[in-house]
Amino acid sequence: MVDLKFCPYCRGRLVARLLFDKHRLVCTQCGRIVHQNHRVAVSTIAFTTTGHMVLVRRAIEPGYGRWVIPGGYSEVGEKLDKAAMRETLEEVEIKPISDRLVLSGLYSYPSTDLILVVYAIQVERSVLTWGPECLEARWFSFRDIPWSSLVFDSTKDALHDWLAANGSCWQSGLEGRAVDTERQWPRRQAGEHPSTVQPQ
Q1: What is the rounded CA–CA span in Å between residue 199 and residue 136?
Q2: Are the C-beta atoms of residues 71 and 44 closer than 8 Å to each other?
Q3: Helix (H, G, I), strand (E, B), or coil: what is residue 160?
Q4: pLDDT value for 22
Q5: What is the pLDDT of residues 165-188, one digit of tens each?
Q6: Residues 89, 73 share a domain
Q7: Residue 59 sits in which domain range?
Q8: Facing residues of 46 across strands?
Q9: Do 78 and 4 share a structural domain?
């Protein structure tokens, strides 16, 4: 969160006062309450009918070198689904089967001012090209998701939730074999929080 010291309206000094059962910033000059609101980020789970999804490895902090679902911040004036598609395509070139993004989940945590909106979209499995904010992009079977190398609680929670809701739909696409879903990904516990690569 931003450490505010001065009022954005009159530049008066801000002090914390207990208002409505919570400490809030109040201007000592104009008396306004200065609210610290959430930022909104958007991401996509881009998946195929063969049971693969795209993850990107970050080339920026926080989380340099670790894996995440593609996404970024929404901008004023954008619809959230359009922002999710824009941010995804800035990070990795994918080929959507349709323009329809399905809302997958909303995630927020007391430790951050960020709200993450996650969409799912079905894509073709193709050669991946990634942008400058990524070290690489790769197709992962959901059996092979690198859980220990994922960054952000929201990434892990979003994947846990999406797989729990949709994993059974993927079973028929996995080499025609039945899959023991208990062994495919760690169970989420309550409260837990230009280069190219050929598809494997």
Answers
A1: 13
A2: yes
A3: helix
A4: 84
A5: 876 655 433 333 333 333 333 444
A6: yes
A7: 39-173
A8: 121
A9: no
Phi, psi of 53 (to 5 degrees): -140, 160
The residue assigned the tokens 């996995």 is: 174
Burial 66-86 (b: 16+ CB within 10 A, else e): bbbbbbbebeeebeebebbbe
Instruction: Answer yes or no: are the C-beta atoms of 69 and 44 closer than 8 Å.
Output: yes
Domain membership flag for residue 197: no
Q: Which of 135, 42, 54 is nearest to 95 (CA)?
A: 54
Are 53 and 79 in the same domain?
Answer: yes
Q: pLDDT tens digits, residue range 134-143? A: 999 999 998 8
Query: Are residues 60 and 134 located together in one domain of the fold?
Result: yes
Do 28 and 49 sit in the same domain of this protein?
A: no
Q: Is pLDDT of 155 > 90?
A: yes
Look at the chain and report how many structural domains it folds into.
2
Name the residue type at position 7: C
The model carries a pTM of: 0.75
Whether residue 30 lies inside any domain: the answer is yes
DSSP state letter for 105 = E
Would 194 be classed as within a structural domain?
no
Instruction: List all residues 6 or more positions away from 169 whose beta carbon is below 8 Å from its beta carbon.
Output: none
- One DSSP character per residue, 30-65 reads T--EE--PPEEEEEEEEE-TTSEEEEEEESSSSSTT
